[in-house]
Amino acid sequence: MTVFSPPQHGSWVPLYRHLGPCSPPSSFTGAAKKKPPSLADLLRQDQLRVDHIHRRLSESGEAVGVSKEGSSVKDPLRFEAAYLHDQPVIQVLLGSQPKSSDEQQQSQPPGVVQTVVLDTATDVPWVQCVPCPIPSCHPQTDTVYDPTKSSTYDPVSCGSPACAQLGRLYSGSWANGHCQYRVRFPNSNASSSSGTYATDLLAVGPNSQIPFRFGCSHADAADQGGGGSDNATAAGVMALGGGPESLPSQAAASYGPAFSYCIPAAGSRRPGFFVLGGVVSYSQYVATPMLRYQRVPTFYRVRLIGIAVNGQLLNVTPSAFAAGAVLDARAAVTRLPPPKGGLLDACYDLAGAFVPPRIELVFERGNVLELDRTGVLFHDCLAFAANRDDRMPGIIGNLQQQTMEVLYDVGAGAVGFRRGAC
């Protein structure tokens, strides 16, 4: 496969898989020592995330057929399994904390390195902040961000427009005149990240500092010992959703209303990349219109009209795809209309020279995207599952996105896919 360099525009940083062989050596040493999760735990984590997206849409009235009472997955996910789920992560610099003498000699800009999980299905970025005692917080391998050591840290006041912008979904109580936030986790109704909503400087790549609003978390584990944070060992979450609080929305004035990423294949020794910035040309991309929900701007959606396997279109009526499909950087397995069958129900004997089937997604306007063969199978089974109701949107998971650059051109209302980008 030809490996391309990241786009020559905007500001970019390497992107790693949470537990991949090329992950930052300082970031996941603690996680690597823990017992890997079972397939059942991974699938349960995936279903909880899908249920969370569907529930958000149902509660807003944007989708029907989703129970508001709770997830279809009843058992709480084991904490260890949750944060061993393979997630896309990047490293950023937060704040203006002075560097050590060695780091100054290496011309490192001020701030502390924070390893954060990329999340396209939430809007408020957050990191753990001092004080953040365990078990209210989870252990992390990066230095915990200390607002008292950053001269540019500034808590958001409770009466400010930025605080009001959080709305009912993300707002918390007030404390000492400072705005408080709360982000609930999809793996448990009882767990969330909460703390002070604040501003500081953020660098995504060299020479790229921007003013940045984020949650300064002082608690992010489950309230009653269930679920817990699904980001442990990472410092927090970099929210990429379409709401005004997200990183792309905040960075649009500096880099334009677009971002992209390329998630490397599982086991790859090459990193991917994350880019803040616009697109110069669509000549290398398979493009399709970006669809948005009026009441839930968080999610980015596209419309499929068909799926082909080894060149043959599946016998699925176009109306089955009418709800569209939400792009998600953290769910692994793609969700399709119910006629496609159950969870991972087509499995293969990989003995011998087995070649995975060629699978193509057909978008509206007839644009066809061939998936990378590394993203077709998951534990020897097709990495596709059925939605519980065809009125729900599908989910295009990160297994199917891997090795290709996924471009979110928010300003132009388009999504682009560039194959073989990492």
UniProtKB/TrEMBL annotation:
- Source organism (scientific name): Urochloa decumbens
Query: What InterPro entries does its record include?
Result: Aspartic_peptidase_A1 (IPR001461), PEPTIDASE_A1 (IPR033121), Peptidase_aspartic_dom_sf (IPR021109), TAXi_C (IPR032799), TAXi_N (IPR032861)
Which Pfam family name is an example for this entry?
Answer: TAXi_N
Q: Where is the active site?
A: 119, 328
Q: Name the chain's protein.
A: Peptidase A1 domain-containing protein
Q: Which family does it belong to?
A: Belongs to the peptidase A1 family.
Query: Which ranges carry the Peptidase A1 domain?
Result: 101-422
